[in-house]
Amino acid sequence: MSIPSPRFPRRLIALVPAAFLLGHGLAQSAELSSALAERHAQGTYREYFELLALPNDATVPEDIRKNVDWLEQAFRKRGFTTKQLPNSGKPMLYAEFPGSDPARKTVLFYMHLDGQPVIPAQWAQKSPWTPVLKRKTDKGEWEEIDSAPLFSGPLDPEWRVFGRASADDKGPIMMLLAAIDALKAGGGQPAVNVKVILDSEEEKGSPSISQVMQAHRELLRSDAIVIHDGPMHATNRPTLVFGNRGAADARLTVYGAKVPLHSGHYGNYAPNPAQRLASLLATMKDDTGRVTVAGYYDRVKIGEADRKIMAAVPDDEAALKRRLGIARTDRVGANYQEAMQYPSLNVRGMASAAVGDKVANIVPDKAEAEMDLRTTPDSDAPYLGKLIEAHIVKQGYHLVKGTPTDDDRARYDKLASFSYRSEGADAAGSPINSPIGQWAYKALTDTFGTTPEPVRIRMMGGTVPTAEIVRVLKVPFAIIPLVNADNNQHAANENLRMGNYVTGVQTVYALMTHGF
Amino acid sequence: MSIPSPRFPRRLIALVPAAFLLGHGLAQSAELSSALAERHAQGTYREYFELLALPNDATVPEDIRKNVDWLEQAFRKRGFTTKQLPNSGKPMLYAEFPGSDPARKTVLFYMHLDGQPVIPAQWAQKSPWTPVLKRKTDKGEWEEIDSAPLFSGPLDPEWRVFGRASADDKGPIMMLLAAIDALKAGGGQPAVNVKVILDSEEEKGSPSISQVMQAHRELLRSDAIVIHDGPMHATNRPTLVFGNRGAADARLTVYGAKVPLHSGHYGNYAPNPAQRLASLLATMKDDTGRVTVAGYYDRVKIGEADRKIMAAVPDDEAALKRRLGIARTDRVGANYQEAMQYPSLNVRGMASAAVGDKVANIVPDKAEAEMDLRTTPDSDAPYLGKLIEAHIVKQGYHLVKGTPTDDDRARYDKLASFSYRSEGADAAGSPINSPIGQWAYKALTDTFGTTPEPVRIRMMGGTVPTAEIVRVLKVPFAIIPLVNADNNQHAANENLRMGNYVTGVQTVYALMTHGF
C-alpha cells in the first residue's frame, strides 16, 4: 500500500466531489488513512519512550537542555533546520521544514517540551520517568503490560502509555514528527511552510516567551499559529479551540476594630468585618451567579453564529452536574460554553479569624476574600479590577492601601483594601470563521468526516498562555488539542491513549497538507 | 478610733437624714471608714501573699485542695463553720458565719478560689506564684518595689500586687475576710446571715456547680446571692451588675460541588459556596449591624427606668471608639449598655478554601461560618438557633446533617448544614429595682455616697456562670465586682490595685451590715 502524494493526493481526488474541491481551491490537500497513520505512529514509539525518559521539570535547566538536544536531533534527522533560542539557560527549540515556498502560507506549530513537577510516590508505576504501557482490566483498573508489542505487533487503540509529559505535551511533538515521516514516506511536500517552536517553560507560565519571540521575530514570522496543547473535548471528537480566558486575581480585605475583640463585650457594638465582607460580596453577584458589578459583562459580544456553534458542542451537562454534585448551575450563560464567554468573579478563598478547633469568641479584626477574575479578550484585568473597585466605593467603603491608619479609622466607618493584578496570562481569541478557522475545520473534516462534527470551542474557560504566544506575531491562531481528556494532565499517572496518538498524526498531517 | 457597731452604727445615724432611715427601715446599717478598712485590709496582706503563692489551676486537683485547706483554716480562725463540698477531687469550700438568726435575711457570697493557667515566661516577675508589689514609674511602667511597707508602713492606694489570681478571684475572698475582721473588731454582728461558697472550677466554666449546689441545697439556702467576681466599671466607681448574657455557638456550612473545581473551567458555572455563604450572611444583618432574622429581638423588653439607668452609665464611648479604632458602632442600641441587652449574632470565624500563600485558583467546595450567639434571659440558645435555622430555610436552603449525600446534591440547589448549642453558660438577669438591687445600692451609696452614683449595669455583654450559680437556689442576685478594670484578668501580669482592696473591704462590710 502506497501513501498518496500529500500535495496531490490521488485517492482524495477520487473520493471528494469535484464541486467541493473547486469551491475551496484545495486540490492539493490530502488526508492520511488511519492504517498509514498507525504505521508511522508505531515507527516513532521507541523515540517517544526515549523522550519520556528525560525528566523535564523547567526548574531544572540541565534537564531541559537534555530534552532540547534530544529533540533537536529528532528534528534534524527528519531534515529540519533547527536553532536553539536562548532563554536563561532553558533554550526553546525552533525547527523549520525544508523547501519553504513564499507562495504558500506559513504555519507556526507551537508545543512545549517541559512538564509539570512530579511526586513519584503518587504514581502507580516505578517512575514517572520510566514510561510503561497499560491496559484497562475488566474491573476498570489500569494494568501494566509488556510494552514489546507496542514497537512491532498489532496495536490496541485503548492501550495507554503512562509517564510524565506523555500527553502534556511530548505526545503531540512526537505526533508531528510521525506526520512528517508519513509526509516524507509519501514523497510529498506540505501545502504550508512548516515552522515549529517548542516552549521550554510553559508549565511555569512561559514568563519570557514574548521576549524570546520578539528576539526572533523574523525567524518565527508566519500566517497562523497552531497550538497543540491541552485535552480534546471529553467525547474525544476532533476539537478546535479559538480562545481562552485569561487569569487575574484580586484581594479584598474589610477591616473592623484594631484587634480582635471579646465577642461578649463587643458583639452588637463593634462592627463585624466578616459580616461586612459577606454583605459586600453579596452585592457583587445575584442569586443566579451573575455578576452585578456595573458594566462587568458589558463588553462581551456574542453573535448568533457563535451561539449556534456553542450550542452544538456535545457537552453532557446532566452528566457534568452529576459528576460535580450540583443540582443547578449558575446561570451566566444558556449553557456551559456560553458561560465561559463571560469574565468571572470567583471567590477562591475567604477567611476571617478561625474556624474549627481554633475558633474563639471574638469579633474578628478583619476579613479577607481572595478572588480570581477570568478575563476575556475585551475585558482585561484593569477593566474588571477598576469596575469592582468602583463598586466597593459605591457601597460606602473608603479604600486604603495596606492597613488603615488611626486617622483612617477615626474618619471612615467602612474601611477596606482592594488590589488586583493580571496573573500574566491574558485572554486570547481568534474568530471561529476566519480563514484560519475554516482551514483547520476543513483539514479535520476532510480527515475525520462531519458525522459527528468536530467540536468547536469559541473560548475555553481555563487559561493557557495563548496570548503570550501570539502577542508578538499578531497572527490568527487555533488551539488544536490532540490528547484524550482523561489524561491526568499535571497530576500523577499522566497518560496518552494510543488511539489518540494515531488520530493526532492524522490531524497534524492534514494541517500540513491543507493550504489556505 | 473605734469602729461603730455594725448593727447599730451611731455615726451613720448621726450623718444620715432621719427621713432616709425611716423610709428604708435600715437603721441597723453601717459603713466602714476608709481608714479602718485600710487597717483591716493591711492586717490580711500576709495571708493574701500566702494564698497567692498557692498555684490554683483547676486542672491540678492537688493544688486546688491546698487552696481549699488553706482557705478553710482562714475562715475557721475567724469563727466560721466550714465544710468542703466534694467535687471530683476538687472540693468547693462552704463557710458560714456564726450566730445565724432566722429573723434576718441570708446572703450567700460567691467567689472562686481557682485561677486561669499561667505562661510564666510572659510575666514580668520571677513567678506568677510569687506575688510582688509594684508601683508605676513616671514613665508609666510597672516597677517592682520592696513589699515590706505593705505589711506595716503607710500604704499607697496606687500600688499593685501582681500575681495569678491577685484580682480574679483571691483578692475579693481576702477582702471578705478583712471585712469580717473589721466586723469582729467592732464587736458587732452582721445585719444578714453570712454564708460563703468558694467555687473550685470557675475558670473551667463551673461544669458541675449545679450538681454540687443541688447536693447541698439546704446548707446553701439563702435569700440572695452576691457574686464578687469580674472587674468594676472602667471609671473604678462602685459597680453593680444585675445580669449577663449567655453564650451559645452555631456553625453554618454552605456546600458547593463535591470537590474544589478548576476556577477557569468552572468559574461562572459551578455555584460558589463562599459567595453563597456571603449572600446568606448578608440577609441576617442590616447595614447598621442589627439582626434581620425575624423575631430575633422580639423578646427583649426594656423599660423606661432601665433605659435611664443604662444612659447613666458613664461609658466614654468616644474614647472607646478611639481605643477600638472604629469610626462608628453598630446601632443595635442607643448606647453601649443598651446594645448589650440584645442577643447577638456574631460571625466569630469564617473560612472557605485558603487565602494568602496557599490560595489556589479553585471554586471552593464549601464555606463555613462560625457564629457565637450571646443569649439573654428571654432569648436562649434554642430560641435563637431555631429562628436562624428557619431564616436559612426561608432563603431557599435545604438543610442537611453533616455532608450532603449524592441524592441531596441531585435534588437541592442550595445545601447547607446548621447546628447550634448552648456553651453551657446561660444568660441571667435580676431586676435592678428588686429589694436585693435596692439593698446593694443602698449599701454602696451609704458607704461611698451618690456623687458620683454607683454604676448600675442591667446586663453585661460577656458571659459568666451566674445562671449556673443561681439556678438551684432560685433567688435574686447581684454581681458586685471589686477589682480594678485594668487587672489583666486571665492574662499575664494580673494585678490588684491596693486602693481597690480597701474599697472592697468597705463594700463587703456594708453588704454584711445592711439588712433587707
From TrEMBL, chains A, B:
Signal peptide per UniProt: 1-29
Q: Any idea where the Peptidase M20 dimerisation domain is?
A: 243-395
GO molecular function term, any single one = metal ion binding
Q: InterPro entries given for it?
A: Cyt/Met_Dipeptidase, Peptidase_M20, Peptidase_M20_dimer
One example of a Gene Ontology biological process annotation: proteolysis
* Pfam hit, one: Peptidase_M20
Instruction: Give the UniProt keywords, A-Z.
Output: Hydrolase, Metal-binding, Protease, Signal
Annotated protein name in UniProt:
M20/M25/M40 family metallo-hydrolase
